[in-house]
Specification:
Number of helices: 8
Number of domains: 1
Low-confidence stretches: 1-7, 231-239
Radius of gyration: 18 Å
CATH architecture: 3-Layer(aba) Sandwich
CATH superfamily: Vaccinia Virus protein VP39
Structural class: alpha/beta
Shape: globular
Largest sheet: 8 strands, mixed
Strand content: 15-25%
Length: 276
């Protein structure tokens, strides 16, 4: 099956359609590479696995990986394209608790998810519940410092809230014994692709993303803009498989990384780790 681009999910097969798409893909891939430090030989939940390529990457060195997502076609695509004995995919209900017992996983990964959830505290409590004592969660989310004006609401119509580093760290501290928030940057030519995209969209969507704009108007206007721009993007991407001079090693995740396009956090549940 083919997975329809939504403007939100990352699909590895379509990553080379433009420099902007490839930059976003490399930042996702780099996040999964970074996370392997915390997943090797362990039981892992990929909470919000999307098209499944990242779960498959983690499964190369993890003991077992379960990728979950709320979208049926994404889970079906992942099952069809990524098959390993230690990898499974499940569709979950966004309004229900995770379908796993307490302490089921050594590590939880959840990339580009928290900005979508209406109750971030409930989401983090559920992650904490399914972690073993001493288990870790690795999170990634857009860094509003380079995407938005200080007063601006998200220009991604699916995002409910985007975080700055200090706010994100305070949120995690309410649920985990240890939490460190890092930035994500890249070599100048690569990071400039993403920064230019963010600046362009930030200005283009400003009338719809002011704080005074009712949310239904914001979402409606952004959805209309997405539909108007979609034929242009599709025409540009048709048959396009290009080579670009970057790979995931050009991305850096570190404390104080600047300019930062994403925040990456590692947090630890209190207690002694229970490792098999």
């Amino acid at each position: 099956m083919e997975l329809e681009p939504s403007g939100e999910r990352v699909i590895a097969d379509q990553a080379r359609s433009s420099p902007e798409a490839y930059a976003v893909y490399l930042m996702h891939e780099a996040t999964y590479r970074f996370a392997q430090t915390y997943t090797r030989g362990l039981r892992v939940l990929d909470f919000g696995c999307g098209s499944g390529y990242g779960s498959a990457q983690i499964a190369e060195t993890a003991a077992h990986v379960v990728g979950v997502d709320i979208v049926d076609d994404a889970v079906a695509y992942a099952r069809e394209h990524f098959q390993r004995d230690n990898l499974a995919f499940r569709r979950i209900d966004p309004d229900a608790p995770l379908p796993f017992a307490d302490g089921s996983f050594d590590t939880v990964l959840s990339f580009q998810v928290i900005e979508h959830v209406p109750d971030a505290d409930a989401y983090l409590r559920e992650i904490r519940r399914v972690l073993v004592p001493g288990g870790r969660v690795v999170l990634a989310t857009p860094d509003r410092s380079t995407r938005l004006f200080p007063f601006q609401r998200p220009w991604n119509r699916w995002h409910l809230h985007e975080y700055g580093a200090d706010e994100f760290e305070r949120l995690l501290a309410r649920h985990f014994a240890q939490a460190e928030v890092m930035g994500m940057t890249a070599t100048p030519s690569l990071i400039d692709v993403e920064l230019r995209r963010a600046r362009r969209v930030r200005w283009m969507t400003l009338p719809f993303t002011l704080p005074v704009m009712p949310d239904r108007w914001r979402v409606g206007a952004l959805a209309l803009l997405h539909r108007l721009r979609r034929p242009v993007r599709a025409a540009t991407a048709t048959g396009a498989v290009r080579d670009y001079p970057w790979d995931a090693s050009d991305v850096t995740i570190a404390r104080g990384a600047s300019p930062s396009t994403n925040l990456v956090a590692v947090a630890r549940k209190e207690g002694e780790a229970e490792r098999a």
